[in-house]
């Protein structure tokens, strides 16, 4: 059945691992951490894979490298295969798996860490590694199986990835006392693009009102925006589950056409992971139940 595959030398687990490590690092130099011996080894191993399959697997891209379409496909197959072997080994040694989760900074702080901190206090149990990442990176890494689960705000992901809602939220405008004389003045200034705003650009949903808005301060996420709000000379947008500290110092305003919109957090996963690792089904179900409960308060 596999006679042709093993008729020639050049294919090995070490060579496939080298392809994955170089792909993840973005260059042979970075994958080898500057070690010239490892650089030579990685270059040779990938060249041997290319000779074996008689196709280019990597190509130069700027100062680094990137996988060709064939290289991406081989990397996907190799990752799936090596993850399967790794899971089998852990089962034989009765070792617990580390599940890798990606989410926005705000979701991690408000919902994910409290849930995982509570369950991680139990012994024994699975381990978790949390990474902050935007939706597009989470989607890519779920396909690559370098993340096990992700929490995204998008309504759809490319196949075969699957989604399930955890909870919804709305956006509110928080205005420090004294920044504007009244609500009408604040909304007029906002519409004219003149209200001094803190905008959490990495987590703010795409909204026409803010596409060309020049913020007084741009930051990465809603938690940072709430911290900057303490200064008292700028307003900001916060999700309904996240209110300013010392809430009485601020006014919460409804923005026509924005406050009425509903946004969602969704758990995302690759069904191939569940086939590869049946234990991940229980982790998925645990996350769905626990995170939805945490969002409900």
How would you describe this structure to a colleague?
By secondary structure, the protein is of the alpha/beta class. It folds into three domains: 13-89, Winged helix-like DNA-binding domain superfamily/Winged helix DNA-binding domain (Arc Repressor Mutant, subunit A), CATH 1.10.10; 98-168 and 264-296, 3-Layer(aba) Sandwich (D-Maltodextrin-Binding Protein, domain 2), CATH 3.40.190; 171-260, D-Maltodextrin-Binding Protein, domain 2 (3-Layer(aba) Sandwich), CATH 3.40.190. 42% of the residues lie in helices and 21% in strands. The protein contains ten helices and twelve strands. The chain has helices spanning 13-25, 28-31, 36-53, 69-92, 105-120, 135-144, 183-191, 222-229, 271-276, 279-296; strands at 58-61, 64-67, 98-103, 127-132, 149-152, 162-169, 171-176, 197-200, 217-219, 235-239, 250-253, 263-269. It has a five-stranded mixed β-sheet, with helices on both faces. It has a five-stranded mixed β-sheet with strand order 9-8-10-7-11, with helices on both faces. A two-stranded antiparallel sheet has the order 1-2. A hairpin with a 2-residue loop joins β1 and β2 (64-67). The radius of gyration is 24 Å and the shape is elongated.
Question: What topology does this entry show?
Answer:
Blueprint lengths: L12 H13 L2 H4 L4 H18 L4 E4 L2 E4 L1 H24 L5 E6 L1 H16 L6 E6 L2 H10 L4 E4 L9 E8 L1 E6 L6 H9 L5 E4 L16 E3 L2 H8 L5 E5 L10 E4 L9 E7 L1 H6 L2 H18 L1
Parallel strand pairs: 3-4, 3-5, 8-9, 8-10
Antiparallel strand pairs: 1-2, 5-12, 6-12, 7-10, 7-11
């Amino acid at each position: 059945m596999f006679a042709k595959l093993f008729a020639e030398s050049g294919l090995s687990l070490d060579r496939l691992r080298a392809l994955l490590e170089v792909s993840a690092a973005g260059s042979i130099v970075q994958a080898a951490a500057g070690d010239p011996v490892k650089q030579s080894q990685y270059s040779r191993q990938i060249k041997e894979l290319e000779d074996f399959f008689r196709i280019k697997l990597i190509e130069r891209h700027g100062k680094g490298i990137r996988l060709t379409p064939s290289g991406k496909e081989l990397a996907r197959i190799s990752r799936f295969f090596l993850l399967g072997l790794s899971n089998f080994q852990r089962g034989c040694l009765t070792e617990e798996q580390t599940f890798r989760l990606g989410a926005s900074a705000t979701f991690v702080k408000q919902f994910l860490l409290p849930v995982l901190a509570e369950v991680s206090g139990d012994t024994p149990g699975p381990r978790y590694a949390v990474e902050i990442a935007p939706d597009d990176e989470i989607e890519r890494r779920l396909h690559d199986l370098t993340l096990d689960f992700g929490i995204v705000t998008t309504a759809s992901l490319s196949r075969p990835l699957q989604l399930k809602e955890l909870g919804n939220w709305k956006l509110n405008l928080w205005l420090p006392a004294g920044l504007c004389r009244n609500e009408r003045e604040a909304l007029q200034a906002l519409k004219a693009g003149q209200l001094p705003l803190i905008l959490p650009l990495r987590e703010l949903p795409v909204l026409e009102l803010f596409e060309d808005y020049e913020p007084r301060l741009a930051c990465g996420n809603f938690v940072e925006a709430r911290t900057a709000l303490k200064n008292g000379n700028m307003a900001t947008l916060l999700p309904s589950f996240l209110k300013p500290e010392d809430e009485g110092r601020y006014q919460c305003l409804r923005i026509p056409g924005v406050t009425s919109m509903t946004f969602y957090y969704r758990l995302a996963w690759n069904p191939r992971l569940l086939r590869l690792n049946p234990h991940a089904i229980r982790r998925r179900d645990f996350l769905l139940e626990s995170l939805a409960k945490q969002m409900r308060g």
